[in-house]
TrEMBL record:
<keyword id="KW-1133">Transmembrane helix</keyword>
<dbReference type="Pfam" id="PF07730">
    <property type="entry name" value="HisKA_3"/>
</dbReference>
<keyword id="KW-0547">Nucleotide-binding</keyword>
<dbReference type="GO" id="GO:0016301">
    <property type="term" value="F:kinase activity"/>
</dbReference>
<feature type="transmembrane region" description="Helical">
    <location>
        <begin position="118"/>
        <end position="147"/>
    </location>
</feature>
<keyword id="KW-0597">Phosphoprotein</keyword>
<keyword id="KW-0067">ATP-binding</keyword>
<feature type="domain" description="Signal transduction histidine kinase subgroup 3 dimerisation and phosphoacceptor">
    <location>
        <begin position="224"/>
        <end position="293"/>
    </location>
</feature>
<keyword id="KW-0902">Two-component regulatory system</keyword>
<protein>
    <recommendedName>
        <fullName>histidine kinase</fullName>
        <ecNumber>2.7.13.3</ecNumber>
    </recommendedName>
</protein>
<keyword id="KW-0812">Transmembrane</keyword>
<dbReference type="InterPro" id="IPR011712">
    <property type="entry name" value="Sig_transdc_His_kin_sub3_dim/P"/>
</dbReference>
<keyword id="KW-0472">Membrane</keyword>
<feature type="transmembrane region" description="Helical">
    <location>
        <begin position="21"/>
        <end position="40"/>
    </location>
</feature>
<keyword id="KW-0418">Kinase</keyword>
<feature type="transmembrane region" description="Helical">
    <location>
        <begin position="167"/>
        <end position="195"/>
    </location>
</feature>
<feature type="transmembrane region" description="Helical">
    <location>
        <begin position="60"/>
        <end position="83"/>
    </location>
</feature>
Length: 435
């Protein structure tokens, strides 16, 4: 029975004196401290109106008048955008509000500012009351509890009319002190619970905050998709080229009388250069992802080779390519040039996987507003399937996505015995995806 009573007492007193209660009481005292500058300004305004001796007068009219002036001043100052992140940080640390329930960043919209104003005014208003009670009630309660034991204190209290003039009042004084402390703890707990309940409402994300967060996630997803295409085109092409070159070299070495050792040497050199170039590109893309893992935003910054590196790509792609160019491709804008390079790379990968060592023709024509590229290769069998590798990426779909993001278009299909990939890219990006 005694154990049950002890547990019941602990359960009842924990909301008033537990660890969370002390943190929330600290949050209220912080609100009281924030109210003080506004309250002092309020005393300057109200003092002359009621003929107060000084701003520290014990006049109740001055105290409550200054309090009434301080709250509107606090509300106006809370309209500044940076008030919300500061309030959110305090609420998360001291009120025990879940992190996901509160908004991040300054209050940009007027709806968010008005909500923040309501929260800040409520925080400093309740904080000022609880702070005042915390300063006044503990000394009063302590005096009541020691009153029966202190003749000097009893003598000073005899001038105060009331129940203490009687014996029963003196005997109940310690109980009154305890009740005063419990009342203070109860008021603080009630005010803290109200703030904790209203925090998600007043400091939570507004519809504009949710829209901005959705736009950030969409932008991040778009960048990640671009990085995925970069990896697919770069690594996929390199693996296809290396596989073909290694297979050709192995067949030469496995022959009974290997004679063309120069071809083997060239194949191994091509493998070395292709893998070295691909590792550099892979490091560049993974560097962007590592920066994101360090809680830095993923950016859509330009990375990767452009058409200036096309000769190197064609020289080590593992298949013979006949290139014809109309115009100076060096003047192609960098975003378009970078995406065009990747499209050529993916086209060569498809040619390697489905045409074997058959030669490829590539024609690039630079007009005044458009870059047109056509790639053709004989088909060893059927046309390429949309999914070119088990578990791999969709290369032709990636080509179409790159062209669409630039405001252009791409077509791929069988033309007689040939497989043809045709791409038209405007020199000024309309889609904005290559930035």
């Amino acid at each position: 029975m005694r154990t049950l009573l002890r547990r019941s007492a602990i359960t009842l007193l924990r909301p008033l004196f537990g660890g969370r209660a002390w943190l929330r009481w600290t949050h209220l005292v912080l609100g009281g401290a924030l109210l003080m500058p506004y309250w002092l300004l309020g005393t300057v305004v109200v003092g002359p109106l009621i003929d107060a001796d000084s701003m520290f007068s014990d006049s109740l009219a001055l105290q409550f008048g200054a309090y009434a002036v301080a709250l509107p001043l606090a509300a106006v100052s809370a309209l500044f955008p940076l008030v919300r992140p500061l309030s959110v940080a305090a609420a998360r640390a001291l009120c025990g509000v879940p992190e996901g329930a509160l908004a991040d960043g300054p209050a940009r919209s007027w709806a968010a500012r008005v909500r923040t104003t309501g929260w800040f005014t409520l925080h400093v208003g309740l904080g000022g009351i609880i702070s005042g009670m915390s300063l006044a009630l503990p000394p009063f309660a302590l005096a009541l509890m020691v009153l029966p034991l202190s003749p000097a204190m009893r003598e000073s209290w005899r001038t105060m009319p009331g129940a203490l003039d009687h014996g029963w009042g003196l005997a109940l004084a310690p109980l009154g002190g305890i009740v005063s402390l419990l009342a203070l703890a109860g008021c603080a707990a009630a005010a803290s619970a109200l703030l904790a309940r209203l925090a998600p409402v007043l400091l939570g994300p507004t519809p504009s905050d949710r829209l901005a967060a959705a736009e950030r996630r969409a932008a991040d997803l778009a960048v990640r998709n671009r990085l995925a295409r970069e990896l697919h085109d770069s690594v996929g092409h390199a693996l296809s080229a290396v596989t073909l070159q290694a297979g050709a070299a192995r067949r030469i070495l496995d022959s009974d009388a290997p004679k063309d050792m120069e071809f083997v040497r060239e194949a191994l050199t091509a493998i070395e250069e292709t893998t070295r170039r691909t590792v550099g590109e892979l490091d560049s893309v993974l560097g962007l992802l590592r920066r994101d893992d360090e809680e830095q935003p993923v950016t859509g910054g330009a990375s990767g080779p452009t058409l200036d590196a096309l000769d190197v790509l064609l020289a080590h792609c593992g298949v013979r390519v006949t290139l014809s160019v109309d115009g100076d491709i060096g003047r192609v804008p960098e975003p378009v040039s970078r995406e065009a390079y990747r499209i050529v790379q993916e086209g060569l990968s498809n040619a390697l996987r489905h045409g074997g060592a058959a030669p490829v023709t590539l024609h690039a024509a630079l007009g005044t507003e458009t870059l047109e590229m056509t790639m053709e290769n004989p088909l060893a069998g059927t046309a390429p399937a949309p999914v070119v590798r088990p578990g791999g990426g969709r290369g032709l779909r990636g080509v179409a996505e790159r062209a669409t993001l630039l405001g252009g278009h791409a077509e791929a299909g069988r033309h007689g015995p040939l497989w043809r990939l045709s791409v038209a890219l405007p020199l000024t990006s309309e889609g904005g995806g290559a930035r």
